[in-house]
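Operator note (shift B, R.M.): manual run for Lipoprotein requested after the automated queue skipped it. Running by hand, logging everything below so the morning shift can see what happened. Input copied straight from the record, untouched. If output looks odd, do not overwrite the archive copy; leave it for review.
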Amino acid sequence: MKHIILVLLTLFFISCSVTNKLNRQLDRSQKASLKDSPFETASGMTSKLKVQKKYRIQYEEELNKLLAENMNDTIILIEKYDFICIGCPADNIQIFIRNKLIQYNKQIPEKNYRRTEKLLTEHLCDSTGYCYSIIIELKKEIAKGFMWNSKPENFGTDNCFGGGHTFYSVIYPNGEIESMYMRCWMPKEFRNEE
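Run finished. Output pasted below as returned.
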């Protein structure tokens, strides 16, 4: 009997550490993106990341499942935070893989996320005709294979009055994770291209 309990406890702790591994990797990658960020607003995001690490367990299992089922695919994870809420978790999560979008939206006043799923066209548009232009641009930058996240100022600014805070994290098939913090993503036509 003691042997069975020992085996069960061992399996439980192994599964917990595997599940938490991705959460820790994402947390480290996102914190690193804050250190390298040119945006002044990045310094205020540490408390939100600490909270999100606890909330991320609500969709971490699905991320692990997607990684296991799609071993040759890159996953893009977007975690969006409200600008005026200090120390709050992300209120919108988007997981992109191939032509699938999985969203988790924070429910208020509950402390959980509501999950939805959409199939997108090959051009990353949904059934209403809305195209996810940020993802289209990110996929192109990632395909170039040249540190897409090294210059966030090429994609946006922190000189804006609306919007929120967003982390873009890319999970590669080899398990590597790269993240970028963005205050306000700017459409290409409004960017100062040099």
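Quick read of the result: The first helix runs from residue 2 to 35. The radius of gyration is 18 Å.
Leaving this for review. - R.M.
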